[in-house]
Structure formats: structure tokens, C-alpha cells
Predict the structure.
Amino acid sequence: MDRFKATTIASILGIIGNIFLLIIKIISGLISNSQSMIADAFNSAGDIFSSIMTFIGNKISRKEADDDHNLGHGKAEYIYSLLISISMIIMSVTVIKGIIQTFIEEEKFTFSIWLIIVCIITIITKFSLYLYTLHLYKKFNNILIDANSKDHRNDCLVTTSTLISIILSLKGIFWVDKIVGIIISLWIAYTGIKLFIESYDVLMDKSLDDITKEKVYKLIKKHKEIIKISHFNSTPVGYEYQITFTIYVDGNLTTYKSHEIANNLEKEIEKNIPEIYLTVIHVNPIN
């Protein structure tokens, strides 16, 4: 299974699973008027949108480079993850406004055993999807899969909180339901903001991280012929980077020999550092 096929499967499973959960949550939430369950249902609606965006973003990002997009379409992953993050933030604000209104009107919900059953089904479904997508993310390092994996993990925690608030209602403690609904919504907003920042950084061509850059420098230092380097630049291309820099070598070396050093170093970097998509090295003589 390749990187793009894995992402497609993850998104399709997410769509199917979340549609099922949305239906049972919204029915049980509206019948019982449970604000935490309704918030959880909105969360599932957002998950469906996220999975659809994952599917579309993955399909576009897998396209090869062409005359109009010389570095390929890898950034599509981050454009669509940005859309996912915005939808999560908007959804959380909408749900919080609704819950505040129920506080003002002092609405209570009606306990139902189906609320507990729905919570248990959700936790089992989401935990299974979390384990699967986490495995795929570790294997392929795809931000769209990572976003879905974190979302499935968050949903397990969110629904566990919903389950606790429902159980407390049996003791006549109804206000916890509303508080949990707000906490769920704030958690969704927090996750959305983190995803927004991560996507925004790549789209704004954030530089290569220090750890990966240090790996590059270690490979450069192995070549004793290289006297110094300068003008190190990096550009994200989807989940990978293109890097460029200048090396300075002894001016007495032949042109062939100096460029052979650069060519060998380019191959070493791209072979040993998977985060690097392309390495371009400029050679300058120095006396």
C-alpha cells in the first residue's frame, strides 16, 4: 500500500464511520435534549467534513509535477487541512452559543439508556479508527492522516466526557451536561487552532526544522573537501522539503571534481534524510 492509497482508505473509513455516528448521536441527543450529546453530534458532522477534505486533498496532492506546478501538488494537503481547521473552529463557536442559550433558559435533558449505548458504540468505533490511522501516519507521515488520527483520539476523550455527564444526570446533576458540552467545543476549537497553525506554517514556506537541518550539516561535515557553506534555504513541498545551499571548495580543484563533490552530497542527503525531496547545491571556489 502506498502513501496516497492509505490516505484514501483512511478518509473513506472516516466518512462511513462518522456518518453512522452522526445519525445515532443526533437522534439520541435531540430526543433527550442532551447538550453534550448534541455537541458530540456536531463534532461527528465536522469529522465527516474533515474526512471529505482529506479525500479531496489527497487526490490533488498525488498529482505529478507539471509545467504550471514545477514542484508538484504536495501543498494541497495543507490547503485542505487548513479548511478542516477553520470548519472545526466555526463549529465549536456555534455549539457553545447554543449551550449558553440553554443555560439562560434553564433547559434539562431526559435520561435514556440509549445515550449510554451510543457513547459506548462511539468510543469503540473511534478508538479502532484511531489505532488504524495512527499506524498509517507513523508509516507515511501525512498531515491529513495525522489530523484524522488526532480527531479520532480526541473523539474518544470527548465521548467519554459525554458518558460521564450522562451518568451523573441519574443523580440529578444536569448542569454537568452543559459544562461538558462547552468543554468538548473548546477542545475542538483548540485542536482546530493547532492544525491551522501547522498548515499555515507550511503554506507560508516555514523553514526546515532544526533537527533535520542538523542532519544535513552532519552529512556535509563528512566531506573534508568542503571548506564552508552559505545561503542555506529550504522550501516545503507538501510534507517534504527542497533545500538549496552553496559550498566552497579549494579553487585548485578541477570543475569536474568540485561538481562531483556536490553531486555525491546531493545523493547522500536525499538517500539518508526522507524529509528532503530535492537538494540543489551551488559550488564556489575559494583560495
